Amino acid sequence: MAIDPSQRKKIAFRLQQSEEKLRLSTLMLRKSHFNDSLLYSYLSLFYSIRILLVEKGEDSDDYNRIHELTEKYFNPTGWTGVHISDIMKEAKEFKDKIEENPGMKVTKSEAEKFNKNAAMVLEEIKSQLKMQ
């Protein structure tokens, strides 16, 4: 499927957003701010998935809608071996727990896992974009 110029702009913008959030996640991880790291990893995933949805004409700012679309298009295995919907679902569950329980502390290993997952999804999407 050919990507029109307006879609290319949106994809470039979402890619920039995802990369920025991943950098922030990594920075927070280094500073031992594990809750913040997880939240930025989640946002990186959110924007990465939106990159894929631009081509389908179903991009959305609504978090719940993005989760529905993730299930629709990328479940069970997605378009690669990366289980995007599972990764996003787990990240959202952690994000929601943090928001519901302000005293909750994410562990270093949990934050590292989500940071790694966000980086993996972003790299997979970048590689798919190069193939187009």
List the SSEs and their pairings.
Elements: H1 5-30, H2 34-56, H3 63-74, H4 84-100, H5 108-131
Helix pairs in contact: 1-2, 1-5, 2-3, 2-4, 2-5, 3-4
Structure described in brief:
The model has no long low-confidence stretch (mean pLDDT 84). The protein has helices at residues 5-30, 34-56, 63-74, 84-100, 108-131. The radius of gyration is 14 Å and the shape is globular.
Explained architecture:
- The protein has a single domain, classed as Nucleotidyltransferases  domain 2 (Four Helix Bundle (Hemerythrin (Met), subunit A), Up-down Bundle), CATH 1.20.120.
- Helix content is 77%, strand content 0%.
- It has helices at 5-30, 34-56, 63-74, 84-100, 108-131.
- Helix 1 (5-30) runs antiparallel to helix 2.
- The N and C termini lie close together (8 Å).
Give the second-level CATH assignment, the architecture. Up-down Bundle
Stated plainly, the CATH topology is called Four Helix Bundle (Hemerythrin (Met), subunit A)
The CATH homologous superfamily is termed: Nucleotidyltransferases  domain 2
N-to-C CA distance:
8 Å
Mean pLDDT across all amino acids:
84
How many strands in all? 0
List its traits.
132 residues, mainly alpha, Four Helix Bundle (Hemerythrin (Met), subunit A), 5 helices, 77% helix, 0% strand
